[in-house]
Design brief:
This protein is of the alpha+beta class. β4 and β5 form a beta hairpin. The model has no long low-confidence stretch (mean pLDDT about 90).
Length: about 120
């Protein structure tokens, strides 16, 4: 949590990530080709943060982006949208997860919307 706070200039309190049944359904329905890797991305983000940012029109969420490399596709990035506010159980809810192309990742970095974590 300290890394997120330093990188994004926020004051989030410690809490766990939570993926609700509704969020599972949303990812499976709206991003079916990404579902399996999105679930892997959740584990990666929980263990080691990737790039962090915030979409200008999504002020209630922040974004964590991790890269997956494979022989089939060496430049796949997964974006996880995570709510800034803890729920009644003290968890931070994952709102969505989906792949973004490398060009979108690079454009967000160039615009200052995705930042390397400040450790």
């Amino acid at each position: 949590m300290e890394t997120i706070n330093r990188t994004l200039g926020v004051e989030m309190e410690p809490g766990d990530l939570y993926l609700s049944r509704q969020a599972h359904w949303h990812i499976a329905k709206d991003h079916p080709a990404d579902y399996d890797r999105a679930m892997q991305a959740l584990r990666v983000v929980a263990e080691k943060l990737g790039f962090l940012g915030q979409a200008p029109k999504q002020t209630d969420n922040f974004e964590a982006v991790v890269r997956f490399r494979s022989i089939a596709n060496p430049s796949v990035f997964f974006l996880l949208a995570i709510g800034f506010q803890r729920d009644e159980r003290g968890n931070y809810r994952v709102k969505s997860a989906y792949s973004i192309p490398e060009r979108a990742f690079e454009a967000r970095r160039a615009a200052g919307r995705l930042l390397a974590p400040v450790r």
